[in-house]
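notes to self, project folder thing:

trying the whole complex as one job this time. last attempt i did each chain seperately and stitching them together was a nightmare. two parts in total, labels are on each line so i dont mix them up again. if this works i'll redo the older ones the same way
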Amino acid sequence: MVLEVTAKTDKGAVIDIGKKEYWELGMDLDGDHRLGAWQIKEIIDLTLPPRNTTKERFVAELPPDTKNAEIEIKVTYFPSGPTGKPVLELHKVVKKLNFEK
Amino acid sequence: MKSFRFLLLVTFVVFPLIVFAEYNTIDDLAKAYSDESCKECHAKIYEEWKSSYHAQSVNHSAGGIRNFILVGLGKEWEKPVSKENLMRCMDCHAPYLKDASEPLIKEIAELIVASVDEKDEGKKAAAKEELAKLNVNCVICHNTKVSIEKNLKGGPKPGVFYGPSGKSTSAHGTEKSPVLSSAIFCGQCHGMYTPPDGDVIGCNTLYGSYQDTYKGNGGAETCQDCHMKKANRGHTFPGAYQLEIVKEGIGLDVQAAGIKLHPGKWIPTAVVNIGLINQAGHRIPDG
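result (full assembly):
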């Protein structure tokens, strides 16, 4: 699962503010990353735990002439991995920011 | 009419479950464990199941099983395909292969490899069509896998279909089994798993996070509550591949503020605080 945050400024700039990936990293007993189910004995848990809120904070400086910006927050789920299908778009939220106050 | 239906069911459902044999063809094996006659009385449930990933538990996972056959067995272990080895996967993906002969196991392994690697599209499709006969069907969940507490209560009886209600019918033997309503029933395959050869396999670890994190933090629902009872999902068992249930599982809270940093320079700066709320009963992602 991937969380992406992007800013689009009123001057047309598109800025990648940040990206976080959530997944289960399988390892064998030597501590090496493995993909085969028969090889995996341990995991590094980089997933979202149940009954919990995982908090992320992004602070990004925008171009000095920015008066307004749209911040797009997108959450996408890849049940078959990053190159497989389907690709599930879970959430897309846009927040408008104004800097002219 | 009723007695004719009963005779049909006994002939095609109950009788094959009573007979133990080692099968040499996919068709014979699939017939012995056939759930075709289940739809006579349980048509809606059967159609729901047909649309589920349980109905395509071999074909849908053929890539991973193919890797085990060619890379795991072939290159790392340098062992031939055998029933003992293939049951590491098939004890969950098609448990009735426990009754397959060794030659049939080898044939099935070849079909799995062909269903992924075969260049000829016709042959590839034919392999998939054969493998589609192998799955996790009514018989597997309502008989074969009802073996939790078998030391206490005995293993599943041939010809008996176990269910949460145990409502009797003239069509087949029925027994009430609370295990079908419990999370551990699903956890037999949807968690760290010990195959018949005694190893431990990390195919997925979902049930571990259900027990230790979800229930450990006060969660009270079962797998069946969300994946079957909620929204009348029944036997479709939606999961990671269905947008609706994944959306239900992940909530999003966004707070964003625009400020100007660096006194004098006043650089426009976005501050974005995000909360990803896992509302499911297990870690996400997992299998």
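what i see at first glance: The first helix of chain B runs from residue 2 to 18.
need to look closer tmrw
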